[in-house]
Amino acid sequence: MSEDYAKKGISNNYLRINAVLLQIKHLLEQHHKSLNEYDLLPLTSSDNNPNELPKLLFSELNIPVTDEDLAKIELLNENQKLVYNIVIERIEKNQPATIFVDGSAEALDRTLKDIMECNNPFGGKVIVFGRDFHQILPVILKGSHTQIVNATLKSSTLWSNMEIFYLNQNMRVEDDLESNNFKDFLIRIGNGTEKTIGDDMIRIPDNMIIKWHDEESLQTLIKSTYPSLQTQFLDSSYFTDKIILTTKNEHVDYINNIILENYQEIAQHT
Predict the structure, then answer these.
(1) Where are the beta strands (DSSP E) in 118-247?
(2) Single Gene Ontology BP term (predicted)?
(3) What is the distance, to the nearest Å, from the Cα of residue 222 to the centroid of all Cα atoms in its chain?
(4) Strand (E) or helix (H) holding 233
């Protein structure tokens, strides 16, 4: 039935589905039944205008673009602007493209092919993925190294269809020398160029280590993480922007209690 409407010149898939549902609705009403009695998509048009766009699609196509949003384009660095321009060009020219990469996407690929009734990758839709493969791998419960690697998108048959861009400039650490050094350290680890001890150990630089001597070492760790605690203790963002990670929940509770004690002492003296 949907193919019949396509032959009539209704090329938009949403409108074809709407027209089919409307015809089914009329047939069911002749037998004193309704669409609500069946597990079908909701009818999104009125009887008087079956060719109107679905309300959801209409609202998505009419989202206002503010001056503030447009101004952010100028804040993009050279690499980001290149990617932005290419993505917008693909969308405006309705050119199928899969840009960036992020995890396993075979399920999304199959779903969009079914929805769009198109065998092109991702149903011919422009898909933008992004992720740092060096730091983030898919989670495979009790999986071996081989199983984890095989679950990445780089091992997928979809990879050959990807148009890949590299964003090498970290905007968040642009003016922070310490963060830049840490970023470069992680990149060297990911690229396999960082010096190792044997084949499987990496020496952490001394400037990233607070050595353990006694319980006072925890206070040193807390002070290095929250150096302005005495003046910023009422600013919630000061705590959400920093974090101390540990291997066990009991260690988390212990460190949190120490920080709370410090917080209470500061609050009592202000």
Answers:
(1) 127-128, 162-163, 196-197, 201-202
(2) DNA repair
(3) 31
(4) none
Q: 23: exposed, middle or buried (C-beta count within 10 Å: 0-12, 13-18, 19+)?
A: middle
Reported confidence tier of residue 201, pLDDT bands at 50, 70, 90: confident
Range from 32-36, 76-80, 145-149, 192-196 carrying the lowest mean pLDDT: 32-36
Backbone phi, psi, residue 143, to 5°: -85, 150
pLDDT at 133 over 60: no
- For 124, other C-beta atoms within 10 Å of its C-beta total 16
Which residues contact residue 224 at a Cβ distance below 8 angstroms, ignoring those fewer than 6 apart? 210
Q: Tell me which H or E stretch contains 98.
A: strand 98-99
Among 139, 140, 102, 149, residue whose Cα is nearest residue 122: 102
Say which residue the tokens 């998108």 belong to.
153
Only one residue has tokens 């003296």, namely 269
- 152 and 106 Cβ atoms separated by less than 8 Å: no
Joined tokens for residue 4: 């019949």
Contact 226, 242 (CB under 8 A): yes
Q: What is the mean pLDDT of residues 39-54?
A: 55
Distance (Å, rounded) from C-alpha 198 to C-alpha 240?
37
Q: CA 233 to CA 241: how far, in whole Å?
A: 13
Name the residue among 187, 137, 151 with its Cα closest to residue 166: 187
Query: With a threshold of 0.85, does the pTM exceed it?
Result: no
How many residues are given for the chain? 270
Concatenated DSSP letters for 241-269? T-----SSHHHHHHHHHHHHHHHHHHHHT
Task: Give the separation between CA 79 and CA 130, rounded to whole angstroms.
Answer: 14
